[in-house]
Amino acid sequence: MEIRFSFEELEIQKSVRKFVKNELLPIAREVDENWALPDRVREKLLSMGILRTPFPEEWGGAGGTFSGMIIALKELSYASLVPSWLLFENFMLAYPISQYGSDFLKATYLGPLLSLESIGALAFTEPDTGSDPLQLKTSAKKVDGGWLINGSKRFITNSGICDQMILFAKAENSVAAFLVETKGKGYEAGKRESFIHSKGFDNGDLYLEDYFAPDEHVIGDTSQGFEILLKTETLGKIAFCTLFVGIGERALDLSVSYANTKTHRGKSIGHRFQMTQVKLARMLSKVEAMKAYLFQVCSMVDQGKDVFFEAAALKLFVASEIKEITSDAMEIHGAYGLSNEYDVAGLYQAAISAQVVMGSLDIQRVIVAKGVLSRGVSGV
Ligand SMILES: Cc1cc2nc3c(=O)[nH]c(=O)nc-3n(C[C@H](O)[C@H](O)[C@H](O)COP(=O)(O)OP(=O)(O)OC[C@H]3O[C@@H](n4cnc5c(N)ncnc54)[C@H](O)[C@@H]3O)c2cc1C
């Protein structure tokens, strides 16, 4: 399948690639280790307006395509997960506000989120569940002029550094989505989690004790929380998979370069060993397949199609392919593949997170199975 991008999308690709090559790649290790962008890189990232791409112009967006934003995220992820993950988290708050929020919420929060002046987050997971909204314990109780929220959340990315988040809580008999200001009274970020896939990543617990959310901070109406969660996670899954397509391209490029330069008995391992060639060929076909599938699903989003099943299938596919791609890359590098001096080791570790974040693989299997059982494959 040939992926055809529009002129505007190709321009985005060109400018982000230039930024990645000249400014991000040279400092990618430092950025990854601190999980923070130096000011000048951050400013350049802001000026490119990547997150504005798919949002409407009237709310500070650029009126472009979802594919345009995804192209940029993929290019960034080639060098480092930090900027793309930062943009991804803001998307997870900006998207539900743009789709379900009142004009007040759009006018107040979208501009700063899209320009990265404020940092966003999404808080669903709790100590007892990350998959089942019926088991949510965080509760919202109606009081005069708003809601009192009590409970705790776990594994929330940016919980210690974000300005606002979309938070899901049980309100009366349904799940509701609230905009929570982290500077508000009753919000407290807790223990920071330490993960194998990244060192500086901000992720941890948060606690709400009689946190007051005014009525105008309810996103959608109070019965729509589950629908908002599913729609946001659907596009979020696609954006999240993009990070691993970028990683896959990098793992392949690093492996090709290593296979061409590492020699055995006077010949490069890429030319001497068929086993190395087999791995490179396998990696290439997997990377190309991930890319084609990713942009096929993005094209469906841009056509206004419901991609609930496709996003889950994409996640299943990408999570398993990236594990094998980075494992092949590590093997090609021999012992150096396990050394922190070499970038492939970091890619291998990062790849693992694709299996868990944005929904476990079993849950994706359940979704995909439901889709295929109900409507088949060919559409005939
Ligand atoms: C790095 C990182 C970042 C994260 N960021 C965020 C964030 O920003 N916001 C947020 O809300 N969450 C976040 N999470 C949480 C993540 O989304 C959850 O961990 C994930 O959804 C799985 O939930 P769980 O760990 O509670 O597993 P559980 O839901 O307890 O599942 C445990 C096991 O049971 C299986 N299982 C559960 N239900 C079913 C079912 N119905 N059918 C079949 N099998 C089932 C699962 O597949 C899994 O194997 C993050 C996690 C990580 C690791």
From TrEMBL:
Residue ranges of domain Acyl-CoA oxidase/dehydrogenase middle in the record: 121-210
InterPro entries: Acyl-CoA_Oxase/DH_mid-dom, Acyl-CoA_Oxase/DH_mid-dom_sf, AcylCo_DH-like_C, AcylCo_DH/oxidase_C, AcylCoA_DH/ox_N, AcylCoA_DH/ox_N_sf, AcylCoA_DH/oxidase_NM_dom_sf
Top-level taxon: Bacteria
Pfam families: Acyl-CoA_dh_1, Acyl-CoA_dh_M, Acyl-CoA_dh_N
Domain Acyl-CoA dehydrogenase/oxidase C-terminal: 224-372
GO molecular function: acyl-CoA dehydrogenase activity; flavin adenine dinucleotide binding
Family named by the database record: Belongs to the acyl-CoA dehydrogenase family.
Protein name: Acyl-CoA/acyl-ACP dehydrogenase
Natural source organism: Candidatus Desulfacyla euxinica
Source lineage: Bacteria, Deltaproteobacteria, Candidatus Desulfacyla
